[in-house]
Every structure is written in structure tokens, then in C-alpha cells.
Amino acid sequence: MKVANRASVAPFYVMEVMKAAAERERTTGDVLHLEVGQPSTPAPAAVLAAAHAALDSNRLGYTAATGVEELKDRIAVYYEERYGLEVSPARIVVTMGASGGFVLTFLAAFDVGDRVAVTQPGYPCYRNTLEAFGVEVVAIPVGPETRFVPTSRLLEHSGPLDGLMVASPANPTGTALTSDELADIATYCRSNGVRLIADEIYHGIEYGAQIPTALSIEPDAVVLQSFSKYFSMTGWRLGWVIAPEELIRPMERLAQNLFIAPPTLSQLAAVAAFDAVDELDRNVARYAENRRVLIDGLGAVGLDHFASPDGAFYFYIDVSHLTDDSQELCATWLDELGVACTPGIDFDPEQGHRYVRLSYSESTKDVRTATERIAGWVSEFDSNPG
Questions:
Q1: Do 217 and 331 lie in a common domain?
Q2: Are 333 and 341 in contact (CB under 8 A)?
Q3: Do 188 and 316 lie in a common domain?
Q4: For residue 247, is it within any domain?
Q5: CA torsion sign, 184 to 210 to 165 to 194?
Q6: Is residue 28 part of a domain?
Q7: What confidence score (pLDDT) does residue 331 get?
Q8: 51 and 24 inside one domain
Q9: Residues 337, 290: Cα–Cα separation, whole Å
Q10: pLDDT at 11
Q11: Are residues 257 and 324 in the same domain?
């Protein structure tokens, strides 16, 4: 029987690495996970307590398609507390993770044949989902010369666009757009009728000045957020979208038909997440220490060709002096070292063979051990390059 052409999108390679790592774990028990971008900590204690309370007192039926009002109200307060911005709860669409937000946004905003720009390297599911929906994906190559972030000058060479997808901090590089860089891009989009969509799911995981939200520059931008990263609720599958007025009702209708509603238990529990800042910031302090461990340990053996991450928990490292096949290198490190990493081809089909992404969201002990193993392997490789 027929299989739809839209299903022929590329795999999400990190999931393939996770599968191989799980098999090794099952047979040998020795894997250090630097491949997957998820916190190694559970949800905050207040969230778990709220979930238990909801289980005991709520029948957990469907909610409104765009989420419960209590959660939307608390998200609006969060934007005032964190960014000093007034966001109407009516603009907030609670979703099945940020991934559900991408689906609703892309379907509501773009038609088949529209042209949407994404950075390369970039999160592969933007590209793959847009292609599945019949949207033409326009790759914007970015590199060390711009800290892997897009600029209006790069966009000028892309032809007419209907949309631009940016991420700040970005996956896989961890680099973030400054206010000036955001303003430059927003001005370009406004002048050329391009819808600006900003993935801000790593906000809160920052290693310096607070990273600005696109809403502070462009109030009509579409902003996607998630409880998976800073809020340490990956498996709860909950996120949100701040949508401009013209997309709210279309996204609601799509959500009603595609998802009915976000997970009820997750929504009721997530309200408490915003009051767990002390606990969550301790997680960020651990990420900062892990970041330092990798910089020091890998830098000592020449693995220092990367943009310094402003946020998130990734390094995107140039390994071209070691290999021209990062997928093979990752397989070697998993087999010989028990260290799972993600090949750059997941994020850049053209230049990703020269790069590897390392995630440092696990325990400091695991990150330090993985760093030592990789550094030892690189030292031996450099001593015996043949």
C-alpha cells in the first residue's frame, strides 16, 4: 500500500543515537550520555507535589484546546516578572510540548509552497516538519564568523521569504541573539513582510546577561517556549506559544482537531514551576560548571573550535582535524569510549560531517568522565594519526 511522500523526511539522528546508546546500555551498562538535550534532573518538587494533589482531587478530563486559564495567567505574569512585558493571556496557546507549538504555528502561518528560512546548522525538526507540510525550506548558512546566528545581510541573499525561524539560544550551538541582532532581523522581517518566529525554549539557561525575548523587539513575533528545558519537565510534554492576534483563532481550531487539548495533569502541575526558581537555578549552576569542565578538558587537547555558548547546554565542535565523517566518529566514541554524542549531520546536511554536538546536561561527574575519555582518545589519535 501507498506511503505518503511527506513521510520521507530525514530521521532525527539524535533519536537514532539514543537507540544505539540504549542497546549498549542494555548489553554493557556503560554509557555516558552527551547526545540528548534534556535535563538529568526531575521536575521541581513543587511541580511533583502539585501533580499528586491534582491526581487526588481532579478527574483530569479535557481542558480547553489552548490550555487552562490558570496556567495562561501565570505564564503572562512570568513575562512581566522576567522581561517587564505585558502579554495578554488571550495570546497564549498552551501546547503539547514546543514540538506541538511548531506544528500549530507552521500550519496556521504557512501554505504549501511558501518559503521559510531556517539557519544551517539548526534544529532539524524545523526543517523536517516544514518539508512534511509542503513548505519550501530556505537554508541560511551560518558559521563562526557570525557566531552561528543569522543577520539581515545573509537574509538579503535568500530571495522572497514568507517566514523566518530563529532560535536564541540555538540548538546545536548555544549562541544567542543580542538585542541589536534581534532588532536587525526584526527590521528586515517587518520591511519585507516576513513572519518572524522565535524558538526561546532555552531561556533561563544562560551564562551571562539575560537573553532578550523577540517580543521585546517585535511585539507581533511568534514566540515558542517549553517546560522541557529550564523547567526540567521534558517528559511532561508541555509548552506554549505567544501568538499574534490573527493566528490565535486559527491555532485554536487546529489544536481542537489535532490534539483536542494539552495534557491536563501537566498543565495543572506546571503552574507551580514558576515559583521553583531557586531549585531551577541550581540546575543552571550545574550546567555552568559542566560547561567549564568541557572547555578546560577538551581545550587542552585542541577541541576548541566552537562558538562559546551563551545559553542552553550544548557545544557544537569542529572535529574536521579528526574526521570528515562525524557520524562514524560518534559511532567510534560510543563503541570504544561508551560516550554518546550527536553527529553534526543532524543539524546541517551539508557541513555537519565536520561537527559533533556535545550536550552537558547530565551530572558533573558524568560530564567530567566523558571529557576525560574523549580527551584521552584525541591525545592518542594525535600521537598515532595513521
A1: no
A2: yes
A3: no
A4: yes
A5: negative
A6: yes
A7: 93
A8: no
A9: 19
A10: 78
A11: no
- How many domains is the chain built from? 2
Instruction: Report the SS3 class of residue 165.
Output: strand
How far is CA 27 from each of CA 278, 335, 373, rounded to the nearest angstrom?
A: 39, 12, 20
Separation between Cα atoms, residue 42 and residue 269, nearest integer Å: 13
Statement to judge: residues 10 and 79 lie in one domain: no
- Residue 313 · residue 37 · CB < 8 Å: yes
Give the pLDDT band of residue 223 (cuts 50, 70, 90): very high
pTM over 0.85: yes
Return the CATH number at 297.
3.40.640.10
**For residues 189 and 219, what is the distance between their CA atoms, to the nearest angstrom?**
13
Q: Which residues pair with 94 in a beta bridge?
A: 240
Question: Strand, helix or coil at 216?
Answer: helix
Gap between the Cα atoms of 367 and 43, Å rounded = 21
Q: Residue 385: what pLDDT?
A: 64
Cross-strand pairs, 116: 137, 163
Residues 94/267, Cβ–Cβ less than 8 Å? yes
Among candidate residues 255, 275, 295, the one where a domain is terminated = 275
Average pLDDT value for residue range 95-106 = 97
Sign of the Cα pseudo-torsion (343, 347, 351, 357, in order): negative
DSSP code at position 334: I
Are residues 236 and 194 part of one domain? yes
What pLDDT is attached to residue 245? 97
Domain of 100? 47-275
146 three-class SS: helix
| CA dist., res. 128 & res. 131, Å (int) | 5
Do the Cβ atoms of 199 and 224 come closer than 8 Å? Answer: yes
| Alpha carbon distance 184, 152 (integer Å) | 6
For residue 130, the model assigns a pLDDT of 97
- Domain identity same for 296 and 372: yes
- 379 CB neighbour count, 10 Å cutoff: 13
Q: pLDDT tens digits, residue range 302-354?
A: 999 998 999 999 999 999 999 999 999 999 999 999 999 999 999 999 999 99
What separation in angstroms does the CA of 149 have from each of 196, 294, 307, 384?
15, 22, 10, 36
Tell me how far apart the alpha carbons of residues 222 and 163 are, in angstroms, rounded to a whole number: 11
HEC profile of 223-262: EEEECCCCCCCHHHCCEEEECCHHHHHHHHHHHHHHCCCC
Determine, yes or no, domain membership for 386: no
Beta 222-226 vs 355-359: how paired, if at all?
Answer: unpaired
